[in-house]
Design a protein that fits this description.
Blueprint: E1 3-8, H1 13-24, E2 31-37, E3 43-49, H2 52-58, E4 68-74, E5 89-90, E6 96-104, H3 107-116, H4 126-141, H5 145-154, E7 158-166, E8 172-178, E9 183-186, E10 191-194, E11 206-209, E12 214-219, E13 225-227, E14 239-240, H6 256-262, H7 264-272, E15 276-277, E16 282-283, H8 286-290, H9 292-296, E17 300-305, H10 308-324, E18 328-332, H11 333-336, E19 347-353, H12 359-370, E20 374-379, H13 385-389, E21 392-395, H14 408-428, H15 433-454, H16 457-466, E22 472-477, H17 482-496, E23 499-504, E24 522-526, H18 532-543, E25 549-554, H19 559-563, E26 566-570, H20 578-596
Parallel strand pairs: 17-18, 17-19, 19-20, 20-21, 22-23, 22-24, 24-25, 25-26
Antiparallel strand pairs: 1-4, 1-10, 2-3, 2-4, 5-6, 6-7, 7-8, 8-12, 9-10, 9-11, 11-14, 12-13, 15-16
Helix pairs in contact: 3-4, 4-5, 7-14, 7-15, 10-14, 10-17, 15-20, 16-20, 17-20
Length: 614
C-alpha cells in the first residue's frame, strides 16, 4: 500500500526519487521520506508528515546531492502518520536505512527480543524492528549486508517489499519482496526500484519483476543478481514494459479520476480488441481456447474479490449463471480464506483484482490452489503477482488507473466477465445463436454509447451541486443493476465521505425505508427492463415519504422523468449490458459532489490504491 522508489547510477538521485514518489503517491500519502548517500559519504534522511509536496518543501534547503537513494510514501499501518514514523528508518548504528511496504506480523516479539539486547527504538513502526534486526545480525555475527538480510528475513512473518542502503557501501542497494510488489528497472549504467513500473518508464522499459522470497543485489557497474533466502541464484527474465508516460499523466484533466472516467470508451475498445469480432461473429479468449476442457467441465465457479472488484463479480455471477448454466458463488476474498471453504478439483476460482497485488485475494488463491481448484485471474496490471499465481486468465487492458476510486477498471472487469460468459456459453451450447450474435453486436456498440452518455457531464455536475448538502444517500437497483447501486454508493463514500448504502430496490421495504425522509436523496436505477414496473412502485414509495429521487432512466422514458426530482438518461442497450452504462453517471455524480465539497478526489483520506496488506 506504500510506494517505494530507489535509484543507483550516475545522475543526481533526488529528482528521480521525488518524481517517482509523485507517480506512486496513489499508493499512500500520509507521510513521505528520502534517504540519500551523498558524495562525501554521508547518509542523509529527510522525512515529514503529509504528501510528497510537503517533503519537497521540507528538503528544499537541505543537501540533496548523491547518486544513490531510496524514497517512500506511506499508508500508515503501525504508528500514526508523523515524521518519526515516516520512512526511511535508520539502524541503531546509523549505517543502514530501510523503506518498507507491508506488515511484519511478528514485529512485537522481535522488538521485545531486541529491546532485551539493549536496542532502543524511536518509532512505533514494525519497519524499524526489521532494520534493527538486520543491523543486530550484521554487527553480532560480522556478516555482510546480504547475509544479514537473508538471516533476518528468515525470522520474519509477514509481507514486505524492502530496499536498504548501507552508508559503508555506497555502490549497493539490496531489495527483497514477499507478498508485496517490487520491480527493478535496468537502464544504461543505472538502476531503478519501484513498487510498480510507473516511476521507472521515463528512464527505461527494461524491468525485472521480483517473485516472492527474491532478494535483488543491485551494484554499480554490475548485473543485477537475484538470490533467495539461502543464497541460491534465481534466474529472471528481463521484461519490456508496455506503458507510456501519457497513460500516467492527467492530460489536461483536473483529476486522474475524471480523466479515467472519460477514458472508458477507449479503454473498453482496447479491452475488446482482438477478442470481440463482429465481422466473424464470435468472442475469442485465449484462456478458454487453451483450457477448454478444464473450464467446460467445471462443477461451479467461485468468484473471489474485494471492493469494486467484488461488485464486478456480482455482475459476473449473473452473466455466467444466465448464459452458461453453471452455478456461481461470489465471496469476499478477505473472508474466503478464513471460512474453511469446501473446494475441490472440479471448481474454477475466478480471482479479480485491478492491481494484481491484493493481499487478501492472493491468499485466497493460494488456499484454493492447495485444494485443487483451477484459478482464472482477471487483472489490469501486467506482470503483477496474481497473474503469476493463477493457472490462466485475462488482462482487462484498460491502462494504469491512478485515481484511488476505481472507475475504468470496474467497467473493464465487467467487460471481461461478459466476454468470458459469452465465449463459454457458446462452447457449452447454452445460448442461442441469435442471442449470441445480438450480444456481440451490442457489446461492440457500448463504447460509442458511453461517449453519448459522457456528453451529459454538465448536467450531472449541476445535479451534484444540488445534492452536495446531503449527509446520507441511498442507492437502489435490481437484477444486473443491483451491483451498480452498490458500486455507486461505494464511489460516493470513498471520495466525498458521505455515508451511502446500496440495496436491491425490493429490499427497501425490509428495513431501509425507515431512514427515508426529505433529507435523504435516493438514487434509483430505473431503466426499462423486466423489473421496470417493480422499480416504479419503489419510487412511488420513496416519493410518498418526501425523499428526493435522482433517477437513471432509459432515453425514451417519460413516467420516471415526471416522478423524479432529477434524472440522467441512458442510451438503450440489452439488460445484461446496462451496468457498463449505468455506472458512469454514478461515477460522475460522486466525482462532482466530492469536488463541490472540496475533497481530494484522487487521494481520499485513509485509502490506498493497492491493498497489499490484510
Amino acid at each position: 500500500m506504500c510506494g517505494i522508489v530507489g535509484y543507483l547510477g550516475k545522475r543526481n538521485a533526488y529528482p528521480v526519487l521525488i518524481k517517482g514518489l509523485k507517480r506512486l503517491e496513489y499508493r499512500g500519502y500520509d507521510s513521505a521520506g528520502v534517504a540519500l548517500l551523498t558524495e562525501n559519504g554521508d547518509l542523509r534522511v529527510y522525512k515529514t508528515k503529509g504528501k510528497v509536496s510537503d517533503l519537497e518543501s521540507f528538503a528544499s534547503d537541505k543537501d540533496t546531492t548523491g547518486c544513490v537513494g531510496i524514497a517512500h510514501t506511506r499508508w500508515a499501518t503501525h504508528g500514526e502518520p508523523n515524521s518519526t514514523n515516516a520512512h526511511p528508518h535508520i539502524s541503531y548504528t546509523g549505517n543502514l536505512a530501510i523503506i518498507h511496504n507491508g506488515i511484519i506480523e511478528n514485529y512485537a516479539v522481535l522488538k521485545k527480543q531486541l529491546q532485551e539486547k539493549g536496542i532502543e527504538f524511536k518509532s512505533n513502526t514494525d519497519t524499524e524492528v526489521l532494520v534493527q534486526l538486520i543491523e543486530y545480525v550484521r554487527t553480532r555475527k560480522n556478516f555482510d549486508l546480504l547475509t544479514s538480510v537473508q538471516v533476518a528475513l528468515r525470522a520474519v512473518i509477514g509481507a514486505y517489499a524492502i530496499a536498504i542502503l548501507d552508508k559503508d557501501d555506497p555502490d549497493q542497494i539490496i531489495a527483497a519482496r514477499k507478498s508485496s510488489p517490487l520491480v527493478v528497472g535496468i537502464g544504461e549504467e543505472e538502476f531503478f526500484l519501484g513498487s510498480d513500473a510507473s516511476p521507472i518508464i521515463e528512464y527505461t522499459d527494461k524491468v525485472i519483476y521480483l517473485d516472492d522470497k527474491d532478494i535483488a543485489v543491485i551494484r554499480r557497474n554490475k548485473e543485477v543478481e537475484v538470490v533467495d533466502f539461502h543464497n541460491a541464484k534465481m534466474n529472471h527474465d528481463i521484461t519490456k514494459v508496455e506503458l507510456n508516460l501519457a497513460q500516467i499523466e492527467k492530460g489536461g484533466f483536473p483529476h486522474f479520476m475524471l480523466k479515467e472516467i472519460f477514458e472508458q470508451p477507449d479503454c473498453l475498445r482496447d479491452c475488446m480488441r482482438g477478442r470481440v469480432n463482429v465481422d466473424a461473429n464470435n468472442v475469442v479468449l485465449s484462456a478458454i481456447i487453451d483450457n477448454k476442457e478444464r473450464l467446460m467441465n467445471a462443477r461451479r465457479f467461485i468468484i473471489i474479490a474485494c471492493g469494486t472488484s467484488w461488485h464486478a463479480g456480482l455482475i459476473g455471477k449473473q452473466l455466467i449463471e444466465n448464459y452458461c448454466q453453471i452455478p456461481v458463488e461470489v465471496e469476499y476474498a478477505s473472508e474466503f480464506r478464513y471460512s474453511n471453504p469446501v473446494i475441490n478439483e472440479k471448481d474454477v476460482v475466478i480471482a479479480i483484482s485491478q492491481s494484481g497485488e491484493t493481499a487478501d485475494t492472493l491468499a485466497a488463491i493460494e488456499l484454493a490452489k492447495k485444494r485443487g481448484a483451477f484459478i482464472y485471474g482477471i487483472c489490469n496490471a501486467i506482470g503483477s503477482s496474481i497473474p503469476r499465481a493463477t493457472h490462466t486468465g485475462s488482462y482487462i487492458h484498460v491502462g494504469p488507473e491512478i485515481g484511488v476510486a476505481s472507475t475504468k477498471a470496474f467497467t473493464g472487469q465487467v467487460t471481461v466477465l461478459t466476454m468470458l460468459a459469452l465465449a463459454l456459453a457458446k462452447e457449452r451450447n447454452t445460448i442461442s445463436n441469435e442471442e449470441y450474435l445480438s450480444l456481440i453486436a451490442e457489446l461492440d456498440a457500448i463504447p460509442n454509447k458511453m461517449v453519448e452518455l459522457l456528453e451529459q457531464g454538465e448536467k450531472i455536475k449541476e445535479i451534484s451541486r444540488i445534492f452536495t448538502y446531503a449527509r446520507n444517500f441511498l442507492y437502489l437497483g435490481r437484477g444486473y443493476n443491483y451491483p451498480v447501486a452498490l458500486e455507486g454508493a461505494l464511489k460516493l463514500k470513498e471520495i466525498s465521505y458521505i455515508h451511502a448504502e446500496g440495496y436491491p430496490a425490493a429490499e427497501m421495504k425490509h428495513g431501509p425505508i425507515a431512514l427515508i425522509d426529505e433529507e435523504m436523496p435516493v438514487v434509483v436505477i430505473a431503466t426499462k427492463n423486466v423489473l421496470y414496473e417493480k422499480v416504479l412502485s419503489n419510487i412511488q414509495e420513496i416519493k410518498a415519504r418526501h425523499a428526493r429521487v435522482i433517477a437513471i432512466v432509459s432515453k425514451d422514458d417519460v413516467t420516471v422523468k415526471n416522478m423524479a426530482d432529477a434524472y440522467i438518461e441512458l442510451p438503450h442497450t440489452m439488460e445484461c449490458l446496462e451496468p457498463l452504462l449505468a455506472t458512469i453517471p454514478l461515477q460522475m455524480l460522486a466525482y462532482y459532489i466530492a469536488v463541490c465539497k472540496g475533497k481530494d478526489v484522487d487521494q481520499p483520506r485513509n485509502l490506498a490504491k493497492s491493498v497489499t496488506v490484510e
